Each structure stands twice: as C-alpha cells, then as structure tokens.
Amino acid sequence: MKSKYFIVVLFFVGNIFAQEMGKPPFDPPNKKYEQLEQLKLLEILDLEEDIAVKFVTRRNKSRDRVFEIMKSFDSDLDKMEKNLRNEKGDKNYSDFIEKCINYENKITEEKNNFIKSLDDILTEEQIVKIILFERKFKKDVRDILLEKGRKRIKKEREN
User: Fold this and answer.
1) Where would I find the H helices in the chain?
2) What percent of the chain has pLDDT over 90?
3) How confident is the model at residue 49 (pLDDT cuts 50, 70, 90)?
C-alpha cells in the first residue's frame, strides 16, 4: 500500500517539477501541487464533509491573500534589484528594508489569522496537525525532488 502511495506522490511531484522548471521567480502556486497537498491534509484531518468545505474555503481565501501579498513583494523586489544595478538609482535603502519587513509581517499576520480562524470548526489537535503537516509536506516534496535530481544526475553520468 505504501509503495502505491509513494508512486502516486512521485508521479505528482515529477509533474510539478517538470512544470516548475523555466518559470519566472514568482508564479501562482501549481494547481496539482495544491490539490495533492489539500487531499493529503484532508486525509490526515479526517473531517466531516461540511467542516471540510468550510476549512477548504477558509484555507483557499487565506492562501489567495498571502499570494497577493507575495506578488506585490516580488514586484517590489524586482524594482529594487533594478535600482541596485542602476548606478544612478536611489541609494536610500532604508525605505526598501522597511517595505520588506512590512511584507514579511503581513504574510505572517495572514497565516496567524488563518490559524486563529479555525478554532470554531476544528479542535486544537487538528490545528496542530495542520501546522505540523505544512512543514512535513514541504520537506517530503523537497526530499523527493532532490532524490529525483540525484538519480537523474547519476544516470546522466553513467551514459
């Protein structure tokens, strides 16, 4: 059973990896990646259908707000990078540093608000499972991608 699950995850991760290559620095999150993440999270939480719908709706809205903040952040980072390369550009970096701090604070605040918003539909144990899942899922995907990369490099060297 575990090997079937691993193959399915590997398939999705392979597709995600293939789609992510060649993209600009910041794009909307990959739909397949999000679907896999959401499916796995719902499996762990084992929610009733109406609760699952409320949870997914709140999670998607929060992710959209984080995405919009990150999109603005990325745009400002591009502007600052151009400014940094331009010798005649504005060298007052304190405003830029303050903007970066504000963006990071907004992202953290949005994530905190999402977690706090769950207390009327989930137990504290389920909320902790979500927090732990976020870290573990990203680590698992990263590990799978790294392993796939190592195998590809090894295969290329053998040929």
Assistant:
1) 2-20, 31-45, 49-85, 94-117, 124-158
2) 56
3) very high
Report the C-alpha gap between 61 and 28 in whole angstroms.
14
Predicted local distance difference test score (pLDDT) of residue 23 = 47
Query: Is the pLDDT at 158 greater than 80, yes or no?
Result: yes
Cβ partners under 8 Å of residue 107, min gap 6: 66, 69, 70, 73
Write down the pTM of the prediction: 0.70
Could you give the CA distance from residue 83 to residue 75 in angstroms, rounded to a whole number? 12
Put residue 46 in one of left, alpha, beta given phi > 0 → left and psi -120 to 50 → alpha: left
Q: Report residue 122: phi and psi, to 5°.
A: -125, 160
Question: What would the two tokens of residue 88 be?
Answer: 């005649």
CA separation for the pair 49, 20 (Å, rounded): 32
Is 16 exposed, middle or buried, given 0-12, 13-18 or 19+ CB atoms closer than 10 A? buried
Q: How far apart are the C-alpha atoms of 93 and 41, rounded to whole Å?
A: 41
Between CA 144 and CA 119 the distance in angstroms is 33
DSSP annotation of 46 reads: T
